[in-house]
Write a structure and sequence with these properties.
- By secondary structure, this protein is an alpha+beta fold.
- Helix content is 59%, strand content 13%.
- It folds into two domains: 72 residues, no CATH class; 216 residues, MetI-like (MetI-like fold), CATH 1.10.3720.10.
- A four-stranded antiparallel sheet has the order 1-2-3-6, with no helix packed on it. A two-stranded antiparallel ribbon has the order 4-5.
- Strand 2 and strand 3 form a beta hairpin.
- The chain is elongated and about 85 Å long.
Length: 380
């Protein structure tokens, strides 16, 4: 009994030593792992980010009009099967379909399914050419031995919704990344200068911050959309939207950086650095901001869903990205049509991915915020 008690005491002592000697990053990670919702959100987020990055390989077709299936417009999703009334197959298959327009259905597509003609799913087929990390490839993850397969169906132009969805995730995340980066740099500069110097400099910068915060995003983009030249390419519009989102997204983080620096600038380590002749930029960059790193990381993660939401909302109302760019906002434009609501419900599949993406960011952000709280263990 005494030996068991001694062993337990030794283990507790080692755990305490590990806790008090751990770095800030290790402490945050330890607290973060205890939150199941945050961990699930992190894994989902990693999956979606990797799916967006490798979308050209994971999807079977070009998401633009160049990869459309002209014989399967507004086609329903094709779900691979392993067996039917004709027997079992070790390889997944889909049926061969034929489509014609009928007078009886007001010239809508009438689909006839031939359940005896199977088309088998194959791995790593050659298909549409694409660029990935600067290199050209032609191999895709899956396809069928003849014809095309559309797991999420097709839109009115015959473009594969599965391919468009994963490319749209990548585009929306890219817009969010550029916007967050611009907002992050501006917030650190403006918030750092405002909090470190204080006085009249702080007053002027806070007036600018309040002015930017009061600017309504939608009217601003409506005004900017009127001045965007119609001949602008999709890439130019993409970077323009990203930059504008960044320029209106920095005030919240700048306020938090300012508040932290106002409380830290009179600490002894800051005074010691000043007495050693360190410049203000050096003190802010090397001493003040590192003490606020965990909260900055949390703010960055939390800012991502708002950037994605902003891009999606603007594209949804026609003020952001437009075809041929594939983004979640562009794809959501189609779900408002009455014909889609009644007949083509598979258009809503990208909506599910959009909701999951935003929720994953929210769960991860909440988990990081709680994990970065130095008093979190005491509260629990």
């Amino acid at each position: 009994m005494t030996d068991t008690t001694n062993v337990d005491a030794t283990v507790d002592q080692k755990l305490k030593e590990a806790y008090f000697t751990a770095s800030q990053g290790q402490l945050i990670w330890t607290r973060f792992k205890k939150q199941k919702a945050a961990m699930v959100g992190a894994w989902v987020l990693i999956f979606l980010i990797l799916s967006g990055l490798f979308a050209p390989f994971l999807t079977p077709y070009d998401p633009t009009i160049a990869g459309r299936d002209k014989d399967y417009q507004n086609g329903a999703p094709e779900i691979p099967k392993f067996w039917d009334e004709n027997g079992f197959s070790a390889r997944p298959f889909i049926y061969t379909v034929s489509r014609v327009r009928s007078i009886e259905t007001n010239f809508r597509w009438v689909t006839t399914v031939d359940r005896t003609a199977r088309r088998y799913v194959v791995l790593f087929p050659k298909g549409d050419k694409y660029k990935l990390f600067g290199m050209r490839f032609q191999t895709h993850l899956f396809g069928v031995d003849s014809g095309k397969i559309h797991l999420f169906g097709t839109d009115s132009a015959g473009k594969d919704i599965f391919s468009r969805t994963f490319h749209a995730i990548n585009t929306s995340l890219a817009v969010g990344t550029i916007g967050v980066f611009i907002a992050f740099v501006m917030a650190l500069i403006i918030g750092g200068v405002s909090g470190y110097y204080g006085g009249w400099i702080d007053s002027i910068l806070q007036m600018i911050t309040d002015a930017v915060r009061t600017v309504p995003a939608i009217p601003l983009f409506m005004a900017l959309a009127a001045f965007i030249p119609s001949e602008w390419s999709a890439e130019a519009r993409f970077f323009f939207i990203s930059i504008i989102l960044g320029f209106i997204g920095w005030p919240t983080l700048a306020r938090r950086v300012r508040t932290h620096l106002l409380t830290e600038r009179n600490q002894e380590y800051v005074l010691a650095a000043q007495l050693c002749g360190a410049s203000a930029p050096h003190i802010i960059r090397k001493h003040l901001l590192p003490s606020f790193t965990s909260y900055i990381i949390v703010d960055l993660v939390i800012s991502f869903p708002y950037m994605v939401l902003s891009e999606t909302a603007l594209s949804f109302i026609g003020l952001g990205l437009k075809d041929p760019v594939n983004s979640l906002g562009v794809m959501l434009q189609n779900v408002t049509k009455a014909d889609v609501l009644l007949n083509y419900q598979w258009y809503f599949i990208p909506v599910i991915f959009f909701i999951v993406l935003v929720l994953a960011f929210v769960f991860v952000g909440d988990g990081l915020r709680d994990a970065a709280d130095p008093y979190g263990d005491a509260k629990r």
